[in-house]
Amino acid sequence: xxxxxxxxxxxxxxxxxxxxxxxxxxxxxxxxxxxxxxxxxxxxxxxxxxxxxxxxxxxxxxxxxxxxxxxxxxxxxxxxxxxxxxxxxxxxxxxxxxxxxxxxxxxxxxxxxxxxxxxxxxxxxxxxxxxxxxxxxxxxxxxxxxxxxxxxxxxxxxxxxxxxxxxxxxxxxxxxxxxxxxxxxxxxxxxxxxxxxxxxxxxxxxxxxxxxxxxxxxxxxxxxxxxxxxxxxxxxxxxxxxxxxxxxxxxxxxxxxxxxxxxxxxxxxxxxxxxxxxxxxxxxxxxxxxxxxxxxxxxxxxxxxxxxxxxxxxxxxxxxxxxxxxx
Length: 327
What we know:
Number of strands: 13
Shape: globular
Largest sheet: 7 strands, mixed
Number of helices: 9
């Protein structure tokens, strides 16, 4: 299955151009534009080298956006080739992105050619502005520009309120290179394979696979320990999990969780939760139960196994009810 994905031709997302024009007219700054990057200094992050040339920042996945974490509570990574560097997810603010950029500079003076966004959620994309120069290209799913246009104002207001003054200068910067199905990018003797997936966690999920080390960057298609949140399709996500298992990886970097986890075993807990959610939601609908009653019973055996379960689980039940009630 995955071998077939590798031969799919990548189509340019011409339609995204109209969305990019709209973005440029909106600009969406939070406040006055910050000083140029050349005048900035930032402290490098603590990164784990999980494989040769792969350095991961493991976000505090029991947190949400705070002034202390600068919106960087999800995982972010640097992949270093012989000629250039790729950033995979840039964090939740420009200030966090500047720290990630400083981390790259502490490791190598190679140009940062690619900033890859795995999906639309703000903790993964709002650091893009730290790399907003001629060297770097922002890359994402072909549906990411439209999703970001629809949500950017809300995300900026929400994260700005949570992070405070250190959020200043953060902007919503959409991809200028988009992936329709599959794409390869070359960092110099190191190719990364980017795959765009059908609706699962969101409708704009993108994974990155490094065949040289067998490392898969799953974005929020995989949560470890923290409860996964459905912002797309429960059934679609289960199907994508099945397809992901065919990727010949040795380790995976989840969107939330440790710096890496064994592959494909890391998928098991999330799939178990989703199958319980699917089974019990269908049973509740068949019994004519309302959502309020279902919250007490659907996948109740999963309580205690996930961080933020009581916060996210009712939302997932609502999403599942909405998706399944017309089956």
